[in-house]
Amino acid sequence: MFTDIEIAQACKMEKITKIAENIGIPEESLELYGNYKAKIDSRFQKELKDKKDGKLILVTAINPTPAGEGKTTTTVGLADALRKIGKKSVVALREPSLGPVFGIKGGAAGGGYAQVVPMEDINLHFTGDFHAIGAANNLLAAMLDNHIQQGNALNIDPRRITWRRAVDMNDRQLRNIVDGLGNRTDGTPRQDGFDITVASEVMAVLCLAADITDLKERLSRIVVAYTYDNQPVTAGQLKAQGAMAALLKDAIKPNLVQTLEGTPAFVHGGPFANIAHGCNSVTATKLAMKLGDYAVTEAGFGADLGAEKFLDIKCRMAHLVPDAVVIVATVRALKHHGGVPKNKLNEEDLEALEKGLPNLLQHVDNIRNVYGLPCVVAINAFPTDTKAELDLVEKRCQELGVNAALSEVWAKGGEGGIALAEEVVRLCEEKKDFHYAYEDGLSIREKLEAIAVKIYHADGVDLVGSAPRQLKQLEELGFGKLPVCMAKTQYSFSDDQNKLGAPKNFRISVRNLKVSAGAGFIVALTGEIMTMPGLPKVPAAEKIDVDENGVITGLF
């Protein structure tokens, strides 16, 4: 059996100019990065303003497990399958972060015969977007500390600096540091720390910005610190937004690549869904909708995180409404939610499957009844799945009025997703009654409660530690009407990663509230969620290598 990277390396790719031509992008609107990658000129995006939008399909999933769900694989395979049945499809994905690539997850460009390529480039550096975002983040940090060093005209309280430095690597050693040590000219000593680049507000800003003008305006609104008299200090007051935008002028342009089967793919932006809003850029999604009759996109982790934020944050800000939602699950993962250890997942266990199914069914119920959207369950097939197990999943879904389609895209590419594609096309014609989980006019506390009760099925929210004081201050400063971005473990509906399935009788503990004024939302940190991950005991990096010909191995 071939590995993902071996399958990708054996693919004969089309020149990216040909892929672009197939969806109406002229060569003069491409900024080429070699033969197989390109950025799309912003002027071309403006020319499409009056073009009719295609259907928007959101792919999400159950809460992830070590067994794997295959959400990106399903997204790519569905786009290929839509082409197989004669539909003009375009896929829009996030860029992988180097942190998980070298950490526990490995590459993130799909899998098997449903991948985006060039896989190695996409997973490693790509077109440099993440480096530009990290540089813009750290420029702002440097200008902030320099302002304090040069006399602190803005009266910034060094103990109330909220802006952290960023690096796109899992490095727990940098979570909490002391910097500015040494001589007087070496800076002002203070406690500091790093976030992973995907958690930077600059990443969220880039992914939500409509264009370079909007980008600059959003950057200027970023709150970096508070003064001694409790007033927010922004990047605009530090006069940083222009230089930051200059660093991001190319990064804001969507990247065009292709799937193994030649389907056009926009891969752009990459905020995590457990600590940020978890969706690719608005510009890439809208471009896919303009250039395809069906635009297939995904949101990170389970539907309680990625889909909730896609719908309540991204759709609200960008005025988008999905036409259909795909919820990805595997029999193996559902058995894990039912209590089966990873080494026993290949054995038939209908009792455990029945016990784990509520996790899937709660996500289905949320999409249909909280958001009012039509959905289908994609069962990502494994060879060890038995007919009895597959029949049980299908039966339980149909009891909720939702169809389940077997997806075999990992093994068969687009051909293995035809049944799923046909159901998605049917759903796109169904009537929608889309609404958000909460309205803008609610207070921050009411929004937190709405997400916790409606989406997580918790009993409510407890504000602990400094959160009550932060809530009061944010509302006094006029940020109370912003949407909420929950930072929560991806493994559970609750804020305790050990509570699998569909737990009941729990409350969500919010320990920290901060404003991302540039992105336009309030971040609520729950449980023990961290904005800088660490490496596992055996990092994926130990298996990655490159030979004398530049051929990479071990990247999944």
Task: Characterize the structure shown.
The chain is of the alpha/beta class and 556 residues long. The mean pLDDT is 95. It has 19 helices and 25 strands. Helix 4 (71-84) crosses helix 17. Strands 1, 2, 3, 4, 5, 6, 14, 15, 16, 17, 18 and 19 form a 12-stranded mixed sheet that branches. Strands 20-22-23-21 form a 4-stranded mixed sheet. A 3-stranded antiparallel sheet has the order 7-12-13, covered by helices on one side. Helix content is 35%, strand content 19%. The relative contact order is 0.16.
SSE order and pairing:
Elements: H1 4-10, H2 16-22, E1 30-32, E2 38-40, H3 42-47, E3 55-61, H4 71-84, E4 89-93, H5 98-102, E5 110-111, E6 114-117, H6 119-123, H7 129-149, E7 156-161, E8 165-167, E9 177-179, E10 190-192, E11 194-196, H8 201-208, H9 212-221, E12 223-227, E13 232-234, H10 241-248, E14 255-259, E15 264-267, H11 282-291, E16 294-298, H12 303-318, E17 324-329, H13 331-337, H14 350-370, E18 375-380, H15 387-399, E19 404-407, H16 409-412, H17 418-428, H18 444-455, E20 461-463, H19 467-476, E21 484-487, E22 508-516, E23 521-526, E24 545-546, E25 552-553
Parallel strand pairs: 3-16, 3-17, 4-15, 4-16, 8-11, 17-18, 18-19, 20-22, 21-23
Antiparallel strand pairs: 1-2, 2-14, 5-6, 6-14, 7-12, 9-10, 12-13, 14-15, 22-23, 24-25
Helix pairs in contact: 4-17, 7-8, 7-10, 9-10, 13-14, 14-15
